[in-house]
Amino acid sequence: MILTSDLDLTDPGFVADPYPALARARASGELLWHEPSERWLATTHGAVSAVLRHRAFGRLWADHEPTEQMEPFNTLHRNQLMENEPPEHTRMRRLLAGAFGRGHVERMRPRIEALAAEMAGALGPRADLLADFAEPLPVFVIADLLGFPRDDHVSLRAWSQAIVRMYEPAVDEATRRAAARASVKFADYVRAVVEERRGNPGEDLVTDLIAARDEGEKLSDDELVATVVLLLNAGHEASVNTFGNGLVALLAHPEQEARVRSGEVDVPTALEELIRFDAPLQLFERTSTEDARIAGTTVRAGQKVACLMGSANRDAAVFANADAFDVSRDPNPHVGFGLGRHFCLGAPLARLELGISLRVLLDQFSRIELVEAPRRPTWVLRGYDKLICDLG
């Protein structure tokens, strides 16, 4: 028997707080057919993990319509790591992996610590911790890594936000036009940097990517541009939302905040709970390339499965008191960075940035009081528009 769901992923109430509805969906079944979107919903930690690890499920890019208008957007995605499967994915990931190895990332620690301390020190008694701290910091870090001027972070962030709005369940014509325009501007910007580095190599990731070879192969120009755009998008979009969601959760639970401040719970352990509790990426879609069994149900070739990451992270079968915020939770096998071949390549850098950011703020300010925190009207990429805080 096929279990079904009529979950409205665009309902404002669901977008504001999806977790009660996701709990009801989990109770209905691990894998539910969602007629409104004509795809399966994987609701539990087990089902999501099985899909993400199963070799039959891939990221198969389908061009957005109208294709002529959306070609700049489609080109960026068609040529990036996240939207490809082996052998292309294997080749591209090997070319990128060295830059994000733990040793290489750890060598960036002093630079990130100094940057975070400088930015925290410049905050006033009332500040927007997103606009003034969490948003620019990861952009500065990835821009430094790529060799881009930090002053361009406003444009980079704006282009990124226009592009990622296309990932929501329903988009209008204005969103499509904005994403296409941003894709053109972003790609043109990156191409100009690439051409400059070809003539004047530097000690940066763009130069390394231009020179990188894997068994005689290299990134094509389109792959190089798409890769850099992906690194900038993923390198700060997820970090900003993880920081915002996690900080709001921490401030809403002062007893948990006190445990981190006192050192009873170390920052790395607490950070995993900040990632789990209110997932910045709520949905990751996969397509079956052949008939496959998931949670006792056959998913036919060509059918899509929406992995509900936020739901998986609240599964009581895996997490005791799953709806409770517990900074000492250990082990904490959340799916915040994905699983399988598409596990987030930048996870070590994200953990480093987020851990440093949290520690610096708690050390710099003995009191962080949330004043205003309006949600962004999005669900797939879940986050806040701003976090106005009084700091003392």
Report on this structure.
With 392 residues, the chain is an alpha+beta fold. It has a single domain, classed as Cytochrome p450 (Orthogonal Bundle). It has 17 helices and 11 strands. A 6-stranded mixed sheet has the order 1-2-3-9-6-4, sandwiched between helices. Strands 5-11-10 form a 3-stranded antiparallel sheet. The chain has a two-stranded antiparallel sheet with strand order 7-8. A hairpin with a 4-residue loop joins strand 2 and strand 3. Helix 9 runs antiparallel to helix 13, helix 10 packs across helix 11 and helix 13 runs parallel beside helix 17. The longest helix has 31 residues. The chain is globular and about 60 Å long.
Strand count: 11
**What global shape is seen?**
globular
CATH architecture: Orthogonal Bundle
> What is the typical, i.e. mean, pLDDT?
91
Rg, nearest Å: 21 Å
CATH uppermost class: Mainly Alpha
Structure classification = alpha+beta
- Unreliable stretches covering 5 or more consecutive residues: none
**In percent, how much strand structure appears in the residues?**
5-15%
Major beta-sheet overview:
6 strands, mixed
